[in-house]
Design a protein that fits this description.
single chain, 765 residues, alpha/beta, 6-stranded parallel β-sheet, 31 helices, 46% helix, binds ligand C2E, binds magnesium ion
């Protein structure tokens, strides 16, 4: 069923059938026929008929046919003109004037079979067989009687008539059939021929008729149609002409009834023809033949009904037109969608098309991104852009064995691949990469290409998410110069958290879920705790404790690191002030994210805080690390120099690791080196590390700097560092990071006695 409904023609057919059954498109049918007969070719009305009526062009309007005497008089006058036939279409009121009745009966009798009496009801469109006024047989004798009965559309326009109707158990022909003089077909219907132009009918006013005021011989040998109907009666519409006197409809009906045959197919024939023709068009490949079928299909709902009408075949055009319009619109929409799904330059389907595909189970999504793709395009003339993409897609298709490669203009190529075991898949992509070792030749241009892959293996997810995941991974692979980046499902689960981190950090600060831990720092010279490093902590109510390394990075990405840093500074100052007030000088260290080091607002923001808090800047140490990611190094240098001038101590954190090395030492101002714990923790076991640490201490001292050893976890390390001449120490052996309350109470205990002996209590926290 889903496949059936996905085809525009089937949908259009269904819609048309629905319209046919409900009559929804009747107004369209009305417009069709009204337009056809308003502007189409017209036939002259049959000149063998002369209408005697009040609205004849020569009438004075005073004539009256109310009494049977008048009617008799008129018939007498007409009879003298020797017509071939008379139609008496007027109400006969028997019993009012017996003399007139007798005269009328006599003249009707004289006409014999040459007179037909038309009987009407006030609502000819709603024939019910009851309200028809059949004149008394006392007057009309054996004369033929015909009854006006029409089918009409929504707007009371006549659309057809039955051949016969039954009144009081007797069968009568309808007026069109009677006027045509054809044998009435019981069940069949006929439709009026609205091509007959009623204005070309010969008419004569009743007055003129009675006065003999007409051309001699006008009525001789003709059918004289005496029309004097109730002006209050409903007038049915005549397509292309509006509402006319009923005789016009009778005459058009007679023309219709004269056709050799008459069939009423309603809307079924048209739908059948259109569907067959449109289907033929769809199954043809050749463009010219396709167009031919489409033209025929359109003609079948526009011209064919009019032609059929001439032949006597009655059809309802609304549903056919609706099917055609629906099908046309659906095809256009399909075309628009297809255009939307194809990139303009290469003609390859774009990534959007891939997202709209149903991905079968056991498929991976791979996105390949081509390094410096935009640069290729800028050097290539526009007509070769498509060629460039096609060549890349061809290589990927050959290498991956996938026939369909999707492409976007930003240089991403995607496909769905068989889900092999991860290692095999990664090797496979690595191999695919090798295909690009040969340069790309586009026109006269040669390019060295370099592709990176993003891989998504999250089968259960929708195609859109998977393509986006693979795309993000491919971009990441390109950014970090890796061949393949595999998108992990857990990263997807992290995405909502990361994306709303902004608000969560604010909430954490408000609720106290984010707090500061203090880790003691030991002074080897004075043998005492001389300071602490403030380390941020986050106990999330649902996610539990979050490692600072993790959320600091996320906060940097979310642009929230400034808020966090200034919050840390404020709180660390509060703690430092309190500890300093206890007597001994206390040094507080805080960490500054590399992202902030080069910010123009950094110095002003920090100085605003220290000025407001009135703290001596010399009591604060700023630890800086990861300086390789600083964008504006001159600005960073200037900021750090300014902070140093203000009195802050500057410390190079994690010294010796990739990001904080000799170049930093040479380039940026500092007072202290913090030896990374990677070296420190191994000094008791590795001679190499011992020598690195010892020479770094020597280097720092030579530069006039002090050294802090991080990560001291045991007494041997602690003592070895002392023997090496290290100035300060920090690590779990000296005390773990702890709440301020814990830190303060232990600090007080230590201050009272021999610090080294009492250190044991600090360590246990
Ligand atoms: P860091 O500045 O190098 O801080 C020292 C880290 O080493 C701390 O980890 C500390 O708990 C840990 N540590 C100290 N002694 C020992 C030891 O003996 N053994 C071991 N194994 N580890 C020890 P933590 O608190 O998890 O902090 C990790 C990193 O997060 C910090 O490294 C720092 O770079 C960053 N960080 C912490 N707080 C802040 C902050 O307020 N702002 C910024 N920008 N970064 C912060
Ligand atoms: Mg630090
Ligand atoms: Mg460190």
């Amino acid at each position: 069923m889903r496949t059936f409904l996905s085809k525009p023609l089937n949908l259009a057919l269904l819609f048309a059938v629905l319209c046919g059954l409900t009559g929804l498109m009747d107004p369209l049918d009305h417009i069709y026929w009204n337009t056809r007969f308003k502007f189409g070719a017209h036939d002259e009305a049959p000149q063998s008929i002369v209408v005697v009526t009040f609205d004849g062009s020569a009438t004075s309007g005073n004539g009256s046919l109310r009494s049977t005497a008048d009617q008799a008089r008129l018939l007498e006058a007409i009879k003298r003109q020797v017509p071939s036939r008379v139609i008496l279409d007027t109400r006969i009121r028997a019993g009012v004037d017996p003399q007139g009745d007798r005269a009328l009966a006599s003249v009707i009798k004289d006409f014999g079979r040459d007179i037909t009496i038309f009987a009407r009801s006030d609502r000819p469109d709603q024939f019910d067989g009851k309200s028809v006024d059949i004149p008394s047989r006392r007057i009309i004798g054996d004369a033929d009687v015909a009854v006006a009965a029409w089918d009409s559309n929504l707007f009371y326009y006549a659309t057809g008539a039955p051949g016969t109707v039954t009144v009081d158990g007797k069968t009568y022909p309808t007026t069109g059939v009677a006027l045509a003089g054809t044998t009435p077909r019981r069940k069949s219907k006929y439709s009026p021929d609205f091509a007959v132009d009623p204005t070309t009918l010969r008419t004569i006013g009743i007055d003129n008729m009675l006065d003999g005021n007409f051309a001699p011989g006008l009525l001789t040998g003709r059918t004289v149609f005496i029309s004097n109907v109730n002006p209050e009666a409903v007038k049915l519409g005549y397509f292309g002409q509006g509402r006319l006197a009923p005789y016009a409809l009778d005459i058009a009906g007679a023309q219709g009834a004269r056709r050799p045959f008459s069939v009423d197919f309603k809307w079924s024939l048209e739908l059948l023809v259109f569907t067959l023709l449109a289907h033929s068009a769809l199954s043809t490949r050749r463009r010219s033949v396709k167009i031919g079928w489409y033209v025929l299909a359109i003609l079948s709902v526009t011209v064919m009904p009019a032609v059929f009408n001439v032949l006597g075949i009655i059809t309802l055009t609304g549903p056919g037109l609706a099917e055609c319009a629906f099908f046309g619109a659906a095809k256009l929409w399909q075309r628009w969608r297809r255009r939307l799904q194809h990139t303009s330059a290469s003609g390859l389907p774009n990534l959007r098309a891939l997202t709209e595909q149903r991905l079968d189970a056991g498929r991976d999504i791979v996105v390949a991104t081509v390094g410096r793709y935009e640069e290729f395009l800028t050097t290539l003339p526009a007509p070769l852009h498509g060629e460039c993409a096609i060549q890349i897609a061809r290589r990927l298709s050959v290498g991956s064995g996938c026939a369909q490669i999707f492409h976007d203009d930003a240089g991403h190529f995607a496909w769905s691949d068989e889900a092999r075991p991860l290692d095999t898949q990664l090797n496979h992509l690595e191999g695919l990469r090798a295909l690009f070792s040969a340069p790309l030749q586009v026109g006269d241009h040669t390019f060295d290409t370099n592709v990176h892959f993003g891989l998504d293996r999250n089968e259960g997810l929708d195609a859109m998410t998977r393509v986006n995941s693979a795309l993000a991974s491919a971009n990441e692979a390109l950014k970090h110069g890796r061949s393949v980046e595999h998108f992990e499902a857990k990263r997807l689960a992290e995405a909502p958290w990361e994306l709303s981190l902004h608000a969560r950090i604010d909430e954490g600060l408000r609720n106290g879920d984010i707090w500061l831990a203090y880790q003691p720092q030991w002074d080897y010279r004075d043998n005492r705790i001389y300071g602490a490093e403030a380390l941020i902590r986050w106990n999330h109510p649902t996610r539990g404790p979050i490692q600072p390394d993790a959320f600091i990075l996320q906060a940097e990405r979310a642009g929230r690191i400034d808020t966090l840093t200034y919050w840390v500074l404020e709180n660390a100052i509060t703690s430092a002030e309190e500890l300093n007030s206890l007597g001994l000088r206390f040094q507080m260290s805080i960490n500054l994210s590399a992202q902030m080091v080069d910010k123009p607002s950094l110095v002003s923001s920090i100085s605003e805080i220290v000025r407001r808090r009135g703290i001596d800047c010399r009591l604060l140490t700023i630890e800086v690390t990861e300086t390789s990611s600083v964008h504006n190094r001159p600005a960073a240098r200037q900021n750090l120099a300014l902070l140093r001038t203000m009195g802050f101590r500057l410390s190079i954190d994690d010294f010796g690791t990739g990001e904080a090395s000799l170049s930093y030492l040479a380039e940026l101002p500092s007072d202290e080196l913090k030896l990374d714990r990677r070296f420190v923790s191994a000094i008791t076991t590795s001679l190499r590390n011992r020598q690195i640490v010892s020479s770094t201490i020597g280097l720092a001292h030579a530069l006039g700097q002090t050294v802090v050893a991080e990560g001291i976890e045991d007494n041997d390390t602690f003592e070895m560092l002392r023997s090496m001449g290290c100035d300060f120490g920090q690590g779990y052996f000296l005390g773990r990071p702890q709440t301020f309350a814990q830190f303060r109470s232990h600090y007080l205990d230590l201050a009272q006695g021999d610090q080294l002996t009492n250190l044991a209590t600090f360590k246990d926290c």
